[in-house]
Amino acid sequence: MCGIVGLHLRNPQLYPRLGELLTGMLCEMGERGSDSAGVAVYGDPTWSPPGHAGVSLLEVEEWDTLAPTLTEALGVAVTVLPLADTLVVNAPVAGEALLAACKAVVPGALVAGFGRDVTVLKGVGHPRELAQRYGLAQAQGWQGVGHTRMATESAVNAAGCHPYAVGPDQCLVHNGSFANHATIRRELRADGVTFDSDNDTEVGARFVAHQLAGGADVELALKRLCAEFDGFYTLLVSNSDSFAVVRDAIACKPAVIAETDDWVAMASEYRALVGLPGIEKAHLFEPEPEVVYAWSR
């Protein structure tokens, strides 16, 4: 099962409603996966302040001293915002510097996401409860991605939740399974790629991030994924400037795309889209097998 939702806003007048609209979409997919949920939000001015780098951390037991410790280490003011089980860390420094400092200060923490525009929140529990704890409905921005999980490939814990955000301002959500993920994991490890979980989706995310780091664009990275990975899947990949969807060669996992002049949206089922403004006039279609659909800001 699992449910995927994504919303890319073209009309800046809708930016203040991103969280509200994404919450409705995510909660409609609760029946497709009720054990955990996560979101990636691009451009919220509180969660991702302009001019700041951000890191989303999970599994930090004692965080009260994190802000002053990071402030001392970096020499600039660092803020730490707790949102449910996720700590959102921000500082006016380069992203690599903040990420390295977080790893040094809390080496046992799980990095859920990092970059200048994205905030990743994820955890175990019902999607509706988690969205409320995140305060998702109040979020703003130009793009959001969400996932509701019904675990099949790994444990129900924070490390197994989607989105997988393993590159700067990048994230991937996935409905389905990769049959040869163990083989590709070994190949990526041989290239120096490290992993945080046994989840097959993380292998897809690491593969895409590895391709992007090597100079490929999102469309080429996803075409290469389709050529290398066996299985049944629908994938949604996003970064600060793009939003892309692809299905496997058989396309047995459900997906629907809706497009208007104001937004582009994708969901596992149409019912997740019915609350979007102007849906009655949207161009609706199912993505074709192994065709990469991509939109950019």
What does this structure look like?
- With 297 residues, this protein is an alpha+beta fold.
- The protein folds into 2 domains: 200 residues, Glutamine Phosphoribosylpyrophosphate, subunit 1, domain 1 (4-Layer Sandwich), CATH 3.60.20; 68 residues, Alpha-Beta Plaits, CATH 3.30.70.
- Helices cover 25% and strands 30% of the residues.
- The chain contains 7 helices and 15 strands.
- Strand 12 and strand 13 form a beta hairpin.
- The chain is globular, with a radius of gyration of 18 Å.
- The mean pLDDT is 93.
Question: Can you tag this structure with a few keywords?
Answer:
globular; alpha+beta; 2 domains; Alpha-Beta Plaits; 25% helix; 297 residues; seven-stranded antiparallel β-sheet; Glutamine Phosphoribosylpyrophosphate, subunit 1, domain 1
How helix-rich are the residues, as a percent range? 10-25%
Write down the CATH class of the largest domain.
Alpha Beta
Biggest sheet: strands side by side, in what order?
Answer: 7-2-8-1-13-12-14
Global outline = globular
E-strand count: 15
The number of helices is 7
Largest sheet features: 7 strands, antiparallel
In percent, how much strand structure appears in the residues? 25-35%
Unreliable residue runs: none
Q: How many domains make up the 3D coordinates?
A: 2
Q: Which structural class should the secondary elements be placed in?
A: alpha+beta
Task: Using the coordinates shown, work out and report the CATH topology of the largest domain.
Answer: Glutamine Phosphoribosylpyrophosphate, subunit 1, domain 1
What is the annotated CATH architecture of the largest domain?
Answer: 4-Layer Sandwich
Average of pLDDT: 93
Radius of gyration: 18 Å
CATH evolutionary superfamily of the largest domain:
Aminohydrolase, N-terminal nucleophile (Ntn) domain
Topology order in helix (H) and strand (E) letters: EHEEHEEHEEHEEHHHEEEEEE
Distance between the termini: 30 Å
